Structure formats: C-alpha cells, structure tokens
Amino acid sequence: MRALDRKLLRDLWNVRSQVLAIALVVSSGIALLVMAQGVFGSLLTTRDAYYTRYSFADVFAGAKRVPNWIEERIAAIPGVRQVQTRVVVSVSLDVPGVTDPINGRLISLPDRGRPALNDVALRRGRFLDPDRAEEALVGERFAEAHGLDLGDRLFAVINGRRQPLEIVGIALSPEFVYGIGPGELFPDPKHFGFLWMTRRHLATAFEMEGGFNDVALTLTDRSPSLERAVIVELDAILDPYGGLGAIPRADQTSNWYLQNELTQLENMGLLVPLIFIAVATFLLNVVLRRTVAVQREQIAALKALGYSNVRLGVHYVQWAVVVVALGALLGIGAGLLLAEAMLGLYMEYFRFPLLIYSVSASSILIAVGVSLVAATVGALGAVRSVVSLPPAEAMRPAAPETFRVSLFERLGARRWLSQPARMVLRNLSRRPVRAGLSIVGIAFAGAIMVVGSAMMDSMDELLEVQFNIIQRQDLSVSFFEPVERSAVHELAALSGVLQVEPTNGIAARLRNGHLQKQTAIQALTADARLQRVVDVDYRAIRLDRPGLVLSTLLAEQLQVEPGDTLMVEIMEDGRPVREVVLTDTVDDLLGVTAYMEQESLRRLVRRDDTISGAMLKIDALAEERLFGLLKAMPAVAGVTLRSAALENIQTYMLDNMSMMMSVNLLFAVIIAFGVIYNTARISLSETSRELASLRVIGFTRGEISSILLGELGILTVASIPLGLLLGYGMIAGVMSAFESELFRLPVVVDPNTFLVSAATVLGSMAVSAWTVRRKLHELDLVAVLKTRE
Amino acid sequence: MAVQATAASARHAPVFAMKGVTKVYVMGEVEVYALRGVDLELQEGEFAVLLGPSGSGKSTLLNILGGLDRPTAGQVTYREGDLSEAGERALTRYRRRHVGFVFQFYNLIPSLTARENVALVTEIAGDPIAPEDALALVGLKYRLDHFPSQMSGGEQQRVAIARAIAKRPDVLLCDEPTGALDISTGIAVLGALEKVNSELGTTTAVITHNAAISAMADRVVSLADGLITSDVRNSTKQPAATIEW
C-alpha cells in the first residue's frame, strides 16, 4: 500500500463517526431507490410472467345471456386470436360458523381441459371433476381468511336456495391479482370471495344452459387502434343480448389497480433518493473542506516533496469515493432487504402464484454513479483552493478568519447579548451559505417525517368522510335483478330494520364528442340521508334537478362543465343513447362516479319504477338474525357491511402504513442525525481552540457546551418551521401525484404530525449534542495554548 | 539571596507554595519527567520570571500553578487551598476567580472584538474592571471595536493581557508572552505587564527562555531538566522600556 493510501485510511479512521454518518445518508438514498426499483421491477416482471403463463385476456365483456353459437361470430372479428366464453354469477356465500354476510363470484371453468384464457393457477388440491356438481375451487385469500381447506364445504345462496360446494382445490387467477369485490377499494377476503365451478353445473344452477354471460378475448396484436375496433365490433355483437360494454385490459379492475400501484412506485422511487443524495453531497463537501483546511500545511509539504496537484486532487476525491462506496454497499444491502419486506406486504394484497425477483441493475448503477459524481465534484471544489496555492504560501497558516458584527446585532440586539451569544451568531453569519444549507438539510428530515405521517392523516380523513359523512348506512343490499320499488317496504318490515333507502344503478357509457368513459350511474333519492353526495366542504348536495352530477375528475376527463350536454349510452336493453345535462360537479374523494336523482334516471331509461339495491340502517342487536333473513330472500345477491369495509381498510392501512412509517422514521433520523452531527463536529473542530481558551480562563464545561450547542440549537430550531413547510409542500405534491380515479387524498396534516416531526428533529439534535459534548470534555487545554492553529 | 527570600516570606504569607512537585508524562512506553521534586514559593505582589530552555519544565510548572494540570506527586497550595487535590470543578472555579492567563499565541476569540474579548471575562467575574478601562491600561483605548484579524500581534497580545487582568486576578500567569512578537512590540507588551504589576499589585509569573526579560523581575527562578537551578532576587529592577535583546 502506498503511503498516501495509508494516510487516506488513517484520515478516514480519525473521522470515522462522521464518515459513517454521511455514508448512512448516502445509503438511505440508495436503499430507498433499490427498494422502490426492486419492488417495481419484481412486480412488473412477475405480473408479465403471470399474465403470459396463464393467458390473461386483452378484452373483457359481460352480457345478460348470449347463445353459445355467438362465440363463433366473436372469434371471426378481425384481429381476435382466442375467445373464452364463461358463465359468471354473483352470489351470497354461506361459510359455516360465519354470521357476517359474504358476497362471492362464481366463475365457470370448461367441462373438459383448461380454459384458453384467464387460466387458474392451482395452489393446492386438484382440478374439478366434471361429473361432480358440487365441486369448486376457491380463491387462496378467501380460503386463508376463513381457514378453509380441501374437503371443507360452504354454500352458495342461489335464488334463495343453498347450493352446497365442496372445496377440491385452492386457486389464483391473473384476473384477480387484486381481488376486490364490486365497489371496494381494498381486497376484503373475509367478505368477498372468488370460486370456480364446472361450466355445465354452474349453467344449470343459474339457468344459463346453452349460453354464456361473460367473454374474454386476446388480440393478434395489442395496438390501441385494433383494440378499439374489436371493442366496437364486440359491443355490436353483444348488443342484442344485454351487452354491458366491452373493456380493454387496461380497464380490467384488478389490472387497473395493479398498474396504478406500479406507476406510483415508479414515481416515488426517484424524488426521495435524490434528496438524500443531495444532502449527502453537501455534508461530504463541508467535511472535506474542513479536512483540507486542517491539512493545508500537509498538502503544502506533499507538494514540496513533488506530489502533483492532480495526485493530491485524486487523494481527496478518493476520500469522497470511499464514503460513497461504503454508503452504496450498505444501501444496496438494506434496499434489497427492504424490497423483500415490501414485496412480502404486497403479496398480501396482490396475489401471484409465482414471484420473480428483479432489480434493475442499471438504475442502481445510475444512483451510485450520480452519488459518486456529486461527491467528486464536491471534493474537487474543496481541494482546489488549496492545491492552487504555491507550497511556500500554503505552508504558512491561513490568514485569520475575518468576522463582522452580525446583522441581528446591528439591528439593535447587540447590547442584550452576552459575549458567548455573540460568538454563536457571528460564527453562523460568517458562513451563511453553509448555515442555510444545514438548515435546509435538517428541514428535509422534518419534512420526511411530515410526509410519512400526513399520509396517515389523509387516509384517516378520507375514511372519516367516506364512512361517516357520505355512507351512513349500516349495510347495503344488492339484488340480482332490478326489483319493484315496493321491495323497500318489504325490507322496512323486517324486524330490526330502522330505515331503508332505495338505490339504483345502471352501467352507462358517458360520451362527449370523441371522449368517453364507461362507468355506473348511481341514482339516489333527492332527500337521501344514508348515502349522500358530498362536496369538497363535506356539505351534502341535494339531487333535486334532473340531470347528472359528476365527480370533478370525471368531468375533467370528459371536458364538460355544468350546463353542458353529455351523451349517455345505457349499457342494457338495446343500449339506448340519451342526452343529459350536467347540472353539477362534485369534488369527491373516492372513485369517479356519476350521480342522478332516481326519478330522473327512471325517465332516462324509460322503464318501470325499479330499484337495484337498498341502504339499511339497522338495530345492532338484531344484526345476526337480519343477515339470515336477508340471505334467504331470493332476490338478494349480496349484503355489504359498512363496519366490515371500514375495519378492512383500517387493517390494510395499519399493515402497510406502519411499515412505511417506521422506514420513514428511520430515514428521517438518519438524515437529521447526519446533518446535525456533522455540523456539530465541524464547528467543534473549528472552534475547539477558542473553546479550550475559554476553559482555561475559567469557563465551565457547561458554558462552553452552550456555545457549541447554541449554534446547533439555532440551526435546528430554524429548520423546524421550514421542515414543516417543506413537508406540507411535499405532501401536497405527493397527493396530487397520487390523484387517481381510485381516490383523491385530501391534504390534511394533523397538528400531532407536526409535533412528531419537530420532536424527531429535536431528538436527533439531543443525541448529536450528547455525542459531541463528550468530545468537549476531552479538549486538551494545555496543547491548545502551545500551538497556533 | 536565599536568606532574603526567607525574610520576604516571613513578611508575607506566600500566594503559592509547591513542595516536592513531580510531574511525569507517560508517552507510550516512555516516562518523561517534566518536574523532579520542585519546591517553590511565590509571594504577594511579586513579579517573577521563570527562565529556562525548552524542555526545562517551566511550562509544566506554570500549568500546574494555573490549575490546568495536576502534579503526579507533591503538594501545591494556593493560599489555603490544595490545588494538587482539587477536582475538575474546583480547578475551573479557581481559574475563573483567581487566575489571569496570557499565552504565547494570544488565544483571542476571533469572532469577538477587543472590547468583547475582555467582556467575555468581566461577564463571569465578581468585581471586574470595565473592559474599556482594562484596555486603556494596556494602551488600547482606541482599538475597542476592532476584531483580532484587524490588529497586529502586539495589539492582540495586549488585548489578551487586558482580558487576563480585567477580572482583578490574584495572579497573572504569562507563558512566553513575547514569544511570537518582534522586539518593539514585545517591549510594549512587557510594559503593559509591568504597569499591571505596579499599579494593581497583581502577583505575576512570566515564563520565558529569553534571559533579557529577567532584568525587569523582582525575582528570577531558573529551571533546567525539571529542577530549579537558581532562585535569585534582583536588587534593582530595570524598566521594561530599557530592555533589549
């Protein structure tokens, strides 16, 4: 090893705690990046492999009842490669020992062989025996949620009749990677399940013999123009059979959620790591500048011995490179571990039969490369001023620092300040850029904390709005077919039912010129109290004018404003197209919805006065008996409990967010500690001579500590409001990046979040201060008097 | 001479008394004896010069007197107090109340002006001289608001003296106060020390390797190799202004 390399290692060892603190900041950035990239890459690769291996379809369509011979016509549409027809029905499920209502979807599998499209991945057990009517495969999450195993039995309630089902296999499907029921945000396997049955037996049970009500197809190529053309053709073919409008893969529920998540991961994976790398670069620069200043005479001596400027430049660049390399190693390791943990969480909600770990090496290399370049530039900046001096000049000590009275003192505060307080102010104001950057660095720590916790605050707010202001029913009932409005009275007559409100919904395609959107129109009564349309200030909007009310996001997508006319294509009974006026838009938070008053909707579709569901307020004591009564009603397709939905979301948040919160807390502490500790060490190094002089003339340890820590305190306290502000800005940015059709998170920051953020920063400061104070106690009072700095 | 010294000690109780003071530094595996059983008393109001080459132990002696270091063996008393047994807090209190230091490299706080450097001490002292008066005493009343970087070495050293005396210390300990200065500024600094000693009566100990300075002292103690080699009282004191080297 060359002598200069030994010097490098020993210099680094001397400032090892600072090196470690900076390396940790670097590693946090790289770990976050590796984690996000790892989760993103793995999910993407896994999804694509899953879709390919299990033949996930390109286009999906539902209808009322289509004769089997139509399948040939569909297969003949130009551009269609494969067709899979199925019978799919929604049912109530009865799991022995469970009183809560459970909704389910039964999906047919071919009597012989495997489906050409949307194949199932058998996790355990065996495929169905076509000769046995009661056999079923159940979805894995549903089986787990209820502790169901092979050989267990459950019941599908079909037209009020209990059809027993025996579980012979546990399965997954590419259609239900994110397995949510209708109207749900998060998978709730306790209350919603997927089951597969043989086509013949399912068709028999639902009087669908000789026909199908669901079709999926793949295309010869996935160009958008072909996709559009095929959808138009398919709609035309299914139209006479109650076609509900075909959707492309991109709009398929599970895939849509998955894609949404992937996009978020991709975006999140960049910004935060960059912040860490920027802060680390700043710290490296500050520490190196100080090192170079202390080693000024050594550098001059080395130059006098014949070392070139370039060699010395390289020496200090190596210094930075070692720190970044250390950080990169730690970061890559931690990032891979975190990615695995995150993937574990994802696997709870996104179910795949396989998992392919995939971390894009190029993105990691880019991150490490960017850190290295930034560190090198920082190092060169620090060393340039010294190597450019002629050796003789550099060997003389640097000119004493010049100070001036700080602005704060000139404004009149001077006479109130003690001499130590003046020292603190002047030290800070001598290097305003460094002080400013330190403040910004610490502020980022606070901001990261705010962002982490504010996500929770926003979700809490969303839930509060959704489950206390908008939805106030205890349970909602949906019917297989629209039923007469008089059903409201039947429901109201059940004992334990306190209040009933009818709901109505139709599938529709909203069109404005070439823009169109397939959605459901939800019809409420004008004076609805159990489920309401609520605006951004959480005031209920009365649906008393004929016309549509749209989510603002939906109106924007369709480029319509209140007063404009929309074309509404109703996805049933011959798909009539009507003109409807947009009366209002509403800044709702969840989903994108079209609302209408029930009587207006009835006139629009020109049909009998029917309802498709009802909202109920019930007596909690009568709950269990009521579930039984409802299940036994032949018209009832499903019952959804508000409390169960809320509980499910809260569990999801607790699982997911608590991990994210801990990771954020860790990183915020690392960045806060990194900046504060380094600032403290640098100012200790710069002022140790002064502080020792003060000790000699009689200042106590406490007094000199307060000078050093006063500087830190001012930086930290100044950073707190900035951090809160930055955090607020970042959360607003993150929320608008998260804005999707799925949900819009309100920007809400609980005062506690600010408190926690400030406390984290102050706590990091206390630890840094405590660590540095020990160094203060070791000041060599005698040595400092004998040497010139 | 020794008889005269004894007579003087009879008149006044000594400010400092050292008995058998030994100081050993352990440098790795080597023990270095900086002081080897030194006995010394300093009297009230005395201007003493401790003379010796580098390595003679004079700085160690001064550091022990100033409460910056403790002896390995022997006893040091300041008036009635035992410095050799005092703890960290007691030594800090001792330095704060009783000792004024002047160092070779001034050790001013660069971020504070001359006046503020002095105020640094007057703010924590019991009965201080006003910073302006202390600076006037060393001839710097027109440089009150200058920062160290705006003053010459001699001026900075005089600020250091003003800072040391402003708390009315019982003793003034100076470690090579002219070591970093040229003759004329060195003489100005010595003049300031002389003035403080005569006008305030502050017991003063100056350590130096510059024998010329001993001419202005009441008493000259020479050290070599950790031992006192001579202890001489000057019959006549030469004014600082007339010293040459």
Explained architecture:
Chain A is about 55% helix and about 20% strand. Chain A is an alpha+beta fold and about 800 residues long. In chain A, the strands form 4 sheets. A 6-stranded mixed beta barrel of chain A has the order 3-4-9-6-8-7. A 6-stranded mixed barrel of chain A has the order 13-14-20-17-19-18. Chain A has a 4-stranded antiparallel beta sheet with strand order 2-10-1-11. In chain A, helix 2 runs antiparallel to helix 7, helix 2 packs antiparallel against helix 19 and helix 19 (about 640-695) packs parallel to helix 21 (about 750-775). The longest helix of chain A has about 55 residues, at about 640-695. With about 240 residues, chain B is an alpha/beta fold. Chain B has a domain at about 45-70 and about 95-240: P-loop containing nucleotide triphosphate hydrolases (Rossmann fold). Chain B has helices at about 1-10, 60-65, 90-100, 115-120, 130-135, 155-165, 185-200, and strands at about 15-25, 30-45, 45-50, 75-80, 80, 100, 170-175, 205-210, 220-225, 225-235.
